[in-house]
Amino acid sequence: MTSIQKFIKYTIENVPKSFENNQKIEEHVNNLEADNLLGTCPKCGGNVTDKGKFYGCSNYKTKDCKFSLPKTWSKKKLPQKSLKELLTKGETSEIKGFVSKNGNKFNAKFRIERKQT
To answer: Does the pLDDT value for residue 62 go beyond 90?
Structure first.
């Protein structure tokens, strides 16, 4: 069975269960978004969520907000806990295990700098 066939089978078997007990589709979508929410966009105030290949603002295409964060930086997958910390506090605690282009390991903190206009 291909992955598409598995997905279709899973969807047919499980999605109807999600909407039992008169749960509205909008409530279900809001619950999914809340589970996926990492924080507030520092540029436009939208919600930063998992976009698949990166983390980005919910207004990424609709309101021209281009705020995004990579899932991997210097061969290190960024922990969601650290991303939430960055979005709420403006800075992460030290993250260990990055690898430079020439193979050296290093630790780093991420910080959001607000541009003065």
So the answer is: no
- Three-state DSSP at 43 gives coil
At 73, which amino acid appears?
W
Distance separating alpha carbons of residues 36 and 29, to the nearest angstrom: 11
Q: Tell me phi and psi for residue 27, to 5 degrees.
A: -65, -40
Helix (H, G, I), strand (E, B) or coil at 57: strand
Cα–Cα dist 13/27, whole Å: 20
The region, left, alpha or beta by phi > 0 then psi within -120 to 50, assigned to residue 52 is: left
Element (H, E) at 82: helix 80-89
What is the identity of the amino acid at 111?
A: R
pLDDT score for 85: 93
Structure-token match 């980005």, residue found: 56
